[in-house]
User: What shape does this take?
Amino acid sequence: MAKWKLWTVLLFFASTSHIGNAAIPGYANCPTTSNYTANSTYQRNLEALFRNLSSAAPDKGFATATSGQTPDQVYGLVLCRGDVSAADCAVCISNATSKIVRDCPNKKSSIIWFDNCQLKYSDENFIGRLDISNELPLINVNNISNVDPGRFSSLLASLMFNLSSLAAANPSGRFLAAGEVKFNDFEKIYALVQCTGDISANDCNDCLTHAISVLPTCCSWKIGARVLEGSCNIRFETDPFYNSTAVALLLRSAGGVSLPPPTGQTTTAAPPPSDATTGQTKSRSSMVIIISVVVPSVLVLCILAVAVLLMKKKNKRRTIQSIVTESVIQNEDLDRKGSLIFDLDSIIVATNNFSKANKLGQGGFGPVYKGRLLDGQEVAVKRLSSNSGQGTSEFKNEVQLVARLQHRNLVRLLGCCIEADEKILVYEYVPNGSLDYFLFDSAKRMQLDWGTRMRIVNGIARGLLYLHEDSRLKIIHRDLKASNILLDKEMNVKISDFGMAKLVRLDETHGNTRRIAGTYGYMSPEYAMQGLFSIKSDVFSFGVLLLEIVSGQKNTSFGTSESSPNLLSHAWRLWRENRATEIVDRELVESCEMREAVRCIHVGLLCVQEDPVLRPTMSLIVLMLTSSSLTLALPSAPAFCWGRTIMESNYSSDGSSTGLMRSDASGGVARSPWTNDVTISQLDAR
Assistant: This one.
């Protein structure tokens, strides 16, 4: 890594030219591994590997290959930038194969990066494995001007994370995404991210997140930079550097659909699917003519009968659609996103008439059932209870919002049903249930090792970042808690239950309501006491969740003494006494990375500070969780902590009055502004 840091410094001071718009001359990493001898079997295998990669990669932009047999077998990979032509790709590969043997003579393992491609080979099989050990930041010496650095960093982080989500979703088949966002009236940030095609979507996401985490410490003030990894690369410039037409064509040819971009960002959508073929239409027409000649009278009767049935069904469906459109959805998002209006009969069949055996659980909305559609797809069916404290407004709210959201860490709405007195939502089935099922059970909690918990934490953070900053809407969830965090079969996060969510304008940061709806223990003090909600309300709830995940204990059921009536006060007391490690779940003490665990506790305490202004935004939280080099501010006393308590009357999610304890937060520690000297830490709520 010392070599890369030296090159970064040289690039930093050597030139004032825009390195992003000039082709990089080729940077090779030649690790100190074993060498091969000239004219050896390994060298001949390596030359054969280069020929195979050169012939396979240009048309597809990516290729892997092997050559020879053990112990002289060599593995290789080449990746061309997604917007370059096949001819430019071929030229780059030719240059790479020539230069890598000159810069890394006789090395059995090397990697080289050019402007349009990267090449890697090794005597060890690395194909399909995530590689973030080869990291090379390249930065422009020039700083940005005529814009607030904090705002520039915020826009850059938002753009990068949105593109990484799109690339990991792999709509192009190439793990590629590009986009732009305006940072003043005349200038834009242009960015492109890409992963190698041999890794999984999760590994692509992890690689890009790791690369993005490098930006605050090296590049967030610069007018251009790139971070090159073994399995991915990211790049941004304030001048156009990629072929937007080529990227758009690549996405369209693969049938990909981009994620909804943040305000001001540009991405590409795919064209609608084609109609049935002309030949099939002619075949059906011919068959109708033959039958009409042979049995005209029977055909007429059949047509009349079928027409009557179809008309009845169409009217019924139109009535359902009308009800949904007029009283619930009032937009076209269900149809546009490919969701469906389900018939009640099909849902009854799918859930075995809402049988107890199919019941997954009971929420504030009503019971949730597992179902299986006729095509075999498993679904989760939420049925609005007639005596639920929620009603049509919450149903409408959830359909309106979730139908318009697409993110890997949000549960996906498949459709809805309004028929007779039923109001039903149909979601993708998430097999592992909710986080609280594991986290607050002494036996099942052991299934959540430290790596799994960190993946859950990062998934929640990325989902909230999308809601707050990266989607085309700006949404405050307002009911984030462990039971609303669903886990798929690979324990990936799916945030659910948007019945209480609030949609705000993109230029708004907060709102207020007379109806306090949420869950005690997760509600921020300003919301519980005054009805004031903001993106910082969700940050507070995230902080509670983060401390619960690290400790394995529930905030509201925690209480070891009068001085620590809940998990927040307990964590704060131990933090002030320099005993933060005692918060960590005892099942994890021997297996987790304690420094990482303490950092999570630190971030959690920053999130639950009583003053919402002091709480970080989700974009900063994501960076704090992924970049260990980012300096963190000192937290002030959390809300609902120890000290004098004040009783207030508010409303819970079921509409009943409940007393909430509030602290004067006088824990003897003065509130301090952000002390982080990294520009990205000055992000403001947007």
Remarks:
- Confidence is low (pLDDT under 50) at residues 1-22, 254-338, 506-511, 641-686.
- The domain at 437-682 is CATH 1.10.510.10 (Transferase(Phosphotransferase); domain 1).
- Residues 39 and 170 are 41 Å apart (CA to CA).
- The first helix runs from residue 2 to 14.
